[in-house]
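Minimal example, chain plus zinc ion.
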Amino acid sequence: MPKVSKKQHDIDAVVIGGVGFNPDDYDFRTIKVNTPYGTVKVKTGNVAHRSRILELALIQRHANNDTSSGAEHLPPHKLNYRANVWAVRSLGANRVIATNSVGTMGSHPPGSFLVADDFIDLTRSRVNTFYDDRTVHVDMTKPYCPEISDSLLSSLENNQMEPFKGVYVCTEGPRFETAAEIRMLGTFGDVVGMTGLPEVVLARELGLCYASLCIITNQACGLAGNKLTADEVVEMLEMKKETLRAILLDAIISLPAHSNCGCKDAIKGATI
Ligand SMILES: [Zn+2]
């Protein structure tokens, strides 16, 4: 695993995904962060919220990196997860809130939000570790930062939303799931998406505090009775972006100045 570079910025939180944040609404600057896995474009700047000034960074998961394909929206199985997560550390940030759009497989209705408290990884083709040179079994008892997750749940309540939490199932994609797959996944998971893994694992390997706010954009395939389209997902994201922004900013300002969780020690005792 490459060496981690020194802190360069003083950032309150990094948002990966960036739904709800249109960088053009703010005076954000774009910086290029070099990582051992490629260059990552990061938008960063100040956001005023409830008499505080927050220094934020945004990594737009699908529209990023030094891709040779020229695609404007990279598919989930082709994202450079290692570069994105390494860029957080290169920025000197410790806290990450990921936004993930998901389908619901249970009782959580489209339009609501869910904080992931565990996951099931059904991805197949993605590089899922920084540790190729030695054996490191990182602990996953609490994959998501409890402190940021609690802050997100309180923020949901304060914004008149149900504070749902649950199990995130990550599929490989890019196709949507079959009805039979959803019947099976629904017996052990609450929501299904394609972007949460291996991001959460990589963040854990670097000892970052990482939480995931899932935006439920649709019923999972086969549950609604009609065909699921990508447009439907985008429409819901557009409708919910103001709420999403309020939830994120409220959660970030209510975090304590220093973390009181164990995330930074996640790999202690993990190496063989
Ligand atoms: Zn933490």
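The beta strands are 13-16, 29-35, 38-49, 52-59, 95-104, 113-122, 164-171, 191-193, 209-219. Helices lie at 81-90, 146-158, 179-185, 199-205, 230-253.
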